[in-house]
Write a structure and sequence with these properties.
Arc Repressor Mutant, subunit A, Aspartate Aminotransferase, domain 1, Aspartate Aminotransferase, domain 2, four-stranded antiparallel β-sheet, 39% helix, elongated
Amino acid sequence: MWQIILKRENEISLSRQLFYAMKDMILEGQIRSGEALPSSRGLAKDMSISRSTVNEAYDMLETEGYIVTHQGAPTRVKEGLYLEKHQKHHEEALFPVITLADKPYKVDFKTGQPDVSLFPRYVWNQMMYKSFEQLSDKDLGYFGTAGYESLRVEISHWLFRKRGLSAKPQDIFITSGTTQALSILVTMLSKAGLPFAVEDPCHRGLLEVIENSGNSILGISVDQEGMKTALLEAHDFSAVYVTPSHQFPLGSILTAERRIELIRLARQKKFYIIEDDYDSEFRYVGASVTPLYSMDKEQVLYTGSFSKTLYPALRIGFVILPPKLHSEWMYLRKHLDVQNPIVEQAALAEFLNQRKLDKYIQQISRMYEKKRKALTTSIYECFGEQCSILGDETGLHLVLKIPGAHFDEFFIEKCQNAGIRVFPIEHYCISKGNHMDQLMLGYGHLKVEEIQKSVSRLYNLIMDTE
């Protein structure tokens, strides 16, 4: 009857299969409103199933309001349940297919990807287990929007050890990575009609966060000394975003003069500075750069994460805020996603407490230094004196500049066709045309033995393009 086919080998019970089939037929109008259904005994006989299976399906239909039963009367379909289906082409237009897997590349200079091959998985797994065992029942509830208290304390100690940064635990708030921190800060700091001032060029992700919040953007150009802070004087804005320790993507360090000028302007014009310290843990030449936050803890809002130092999927970051912003941050975070998962926070607190992160950073820094040397050596061997390298003293990427080159959309298409992923600096520019001769090369994830071959392939493609 009704051409319903039940699959006995299916993990879904026969009664629920029957329920789903009849529900769909009711919604599609194949079983009309008011129509009497066959008795459970009769339907069971027709479909060669037990009567109890039919009764269970009828009970589910009645519970969800698809049928009505009355003593001594046939069971009938409830009135007004026909639901017209969406047209298929409408569904495809509204919900396009998204491919999650990366396209395979022969040469991949993507940025922001650390090498997780040396990550101590066994140690981390042990700490996850131990941390979960030690958590109280209260910890497993809605324990706190600010973050796990022990982790906030350990981050405070870690920042002091590694960056010379003094921050109180109560000023540190745990986030699901830097992107979430920036998203909340943009909402907090937005002033009607005023743009957010950002470095130009700048990370595309930040620009999208600002634009998606309905705010406008003011690009401030960057040179070898960082953001040209003098250009801020003539404008009013909601806040200023900077990467002073390793400008993304050009790699320059904001000079002391410009840091002072930026803070003076922030105090004078009463705006906040968002400092994104995204990869300065990896410093290969000279001492680590002191964060801007150390110069003014009231005007500078410091953001960091463990995506590069541990692994991106961990999704734990933090922001340091002055007391006057605590309550608003807590309100916005609570109504966004309440809190980070507790077990990972507890494990990270223990990882920091035992100095495991300090040792791991030392280990992977030596590995990244080898990759950096292999990359810079290969670049000079292939390109010779015609090129220059920028921003390679810190982080997991560098900038290759070839005077006279023109890295446009045609070049990118040619790279993709050749199986090479590389990003021109122009991709990150707000004002176009000033960095056409520069490419950003990420190397954190590359294998040392593959770097020379990868650079050679890029060189051959560039020469062929010219």
